[in-house]
Amino acid sequence: MxxxxxxxxxxxxxxxxxxxxxxxxxxxxRSAHASPKYVxxxxxxxxxxxxxxxxxxxxxxxxxxxxxxxxxxAIGLAFPLYTASLTSNNVYAKxxxxxxxxxxxxxxxxxxxxxxxxHNAGLEVALRPxxxxxxxxxxxxxxxxxxxxxxxPNAWFKSYLRVLRPYLLMAQANNVQFFSISTELNSLxxxxxxxxxxxxxxxxYKGGLEFTxxxxxxxxxxxxxxTSNAIDAYPKIPNAKSNESVKVLVSQWNHLLxxxxxxxxxxxxxxxxxxxxxxAQDGEYQNPSVAGLSFKKHPFNQAIQGHWFTAACxxxxxxxxxxxxxxxxxxxxxxxxxxVTPDPKLATDIQPAGQAAxxxxxx
Length: 363
Description:
- By secondary structure, the protein is α/β, with parallel strands linked by helices.
- The protein has helices spanning 53-69, 108-120, 134-139, 153-173, 194-202, 246-259, 302-318, 352-362, and strands at 17-19, 39-45, 74-81, 124-131, 178-183, 208-214, 228-232, 271-276, 323-326.
- Helix 6 (246-259) links the parallel strand 7 (228-232) and strand 8 (271-276).
């Protein structure tokens, strides 16, 4: 349950990604070269409103430099796709040349240029297509990609694979290390069509396919064959205090893992935390996937983010998981620069305390 690309209307979205290059049984390795134990990377959200490619490349170059300074050796490129309603059978990419437009899908060519910049800097790349939720929330505020219920699942999958095809072709042509074929599509995760969809995608793209669940969603996690396993981690800690220690936060994560069925993670050591993020505000431990809390009731507090990021890293290493992703900023936010001083206006961005936690984790 992401710190919403869904946090799309907010000024800055930040986080980081750490993924290991090992693969689950039957999955294609993410990289042909020798890999470190973990890939430490930063995830960015790429929204295209027809900006000049030179400007996008400038932002990407700055971000890559910033991420590498924190010790990253990978970058994730999340980007939006669209569907009109929860029951629609159609998924599509669309961009409108207007900064206020909802429609912001980058073309494969735009992403390919960013991939080249990342590879030239020595970073591995993950592509993460996301079914954007803003159209859904216009009709029903509680809607999100994890409860899609197309009237005709076969037609939905046909449409989904059609829109993914040019991105898969680009990923193959540009040696992208891994590609998320499913991100938080929990209500569709057990569809019988997935094996065929994965097989047809593999004919195009030979890299590492990932299949990602939202960890806190009440659905049994059943991993699809031929993919690496992943979760997007936004566990809710109802009774956590704002000054909670990292040790207590980790213990509460572990309590959820053991005590609540929705948090069960089969074969956890073969699973990557594909995404974890939190806004730097009091009260976020209770529901870290939600942004935009009232600052009057929930003051800015960068320690919330720093402690949460450290707890996530400790949890990942404690269970010998493949890695962890921290949800990152939009590509163009502040021209690709991370905040140098604590900034309440960019509460969803990676604050200095969050950067310090990430740098320590990556070290």
